[in-house]
Amino acid sequence: MIPVGRPVLGKEEEKAVIEVIRSGMLAQGTKVEQLEKDFAKKVGAKYAVATSNGTTALHLALIAAGIKEGDEVITTPFTFAATGNAIVYTGAKPVFADICEDDYNIDPRSIEKLVTSKTKAILPVHLYGQAARMTEIMKIARKRNLVVIEDACQSHMAQLGKKKVGTFGLSGAFSMYPTKNMTTGEGGMVTTNSKKMADTLKLLRNHGMEHRYHHDIIGYNFRMTDIGAAIGIEQLKKLAGFTSRRRDIASHYTKALKDIPGIVTPTELKGNKHVYHQYTIRVTADFGWTRDELMAELAKNNIGSAIFYPVPLYRQKAYKGIGRKGVCKVTEKVTKEVLSLPIHPALKDNEQKKIIKTIVDMYQG
Ligand SMILES: *Cc1c(COP(=O)(O)O)cnc(C)c1O
Known about the structure:
Elements: H1 11-23, H2 30-43, E1 47-51, H3 54-64, E2 72-75, H4 81-89, E3 93-96, H5 108-114, E4 119-123, H6 134-144, E5 147-151, E6 159-160, E7 163-164, E8 171-175, E9 188-192, H7 195-205, E10 209-211, E11 214-215, H8 226-257, E12 263-264, E13 272-273, E14 279-283, H9 291-300, H10 329-335, E15 338-341, H11 349-364
Parallel strand pairs: 2-3, 2-4, 4-5, 5-8
Antiparallel strand pairs: 1-9, 6-7, 6-13, 8-9, 10-11, 12-14, 14-15
Helix pairs in contact: 1-8, 2-8, 3-4, 8-11
The structure holds pyridoxal-5'-phosphate (PLP).
């Protein structure tokens, strides 16, 4: 089976992990500190604070921004559940705005309609590896005095103009899960330009401990291990190479698929550098087969594919009675049409040829 995503790890990561194991210092330490420094520099943020995963990165970013019970946070329903869950953990209410049909990211026009006196923050997601419409979002935030926390879990080093995601709002949250664009095993990172924010994040992830066994606030154990960070340091060195391979694969797909009726290939918006965490097409009526039929045909040919995401968050059973519902027409439509094809740096050219041929053959019947 050609997997839809997989991590690429080599001798460098192996060596780094063995070094940490032999040192006997496995928990958060010098490797975490090094990864934070390297990551902040690459993103162009003043500070980066490592956490145990992308979900805890989002959770801590929201708490450190002062989001609490009774607040409303406007976000997208077309995302992984962790985005909404992190809001719910704080006691705040997620309010779901609709998305744009070109990039599948939150629609600034929809955000504006949902702002109330309770709204405290906007939580855009840079879905599939492409920056959301941050210029418009930051304008709304400034006008309405709202905090912006970016969910950059799928978009390491994606750019809008010269700026990288995770540097537009008060902070950005990244995931280092194995299938993300870089990994630490499990892991997360929060970026920010605010020293106060970075200090609070560091306290929160380590039981609110300023000095050993002196606790200033109630915190959590959301630390990253030095084993994970050692992997991450090596992965970060390779990230630019991974990204350019992802972009090459994406451009091959687009060239081969864009003229097939009923296949909508991804749009890279003007000024954006898409890092293709996913290569997601839409299958519409003109294709002659449904999205689910195409998925089954790919599976029959040992090709993995995935639906990110089949159900809008507000329709999830877990979200019954949670959040304030908007009417998300574009989200409703898109959830029925999207299909993500294999895209990871280790995908071979002949594997991609086979994937493309399977889709073309199916169209031609
Ligand atoms: C992966 C992901 C998360 C959560 O990251 P974890 O490291 O799995 O906790 C949050 N939001 C989005 C959009 C993601 O893709």
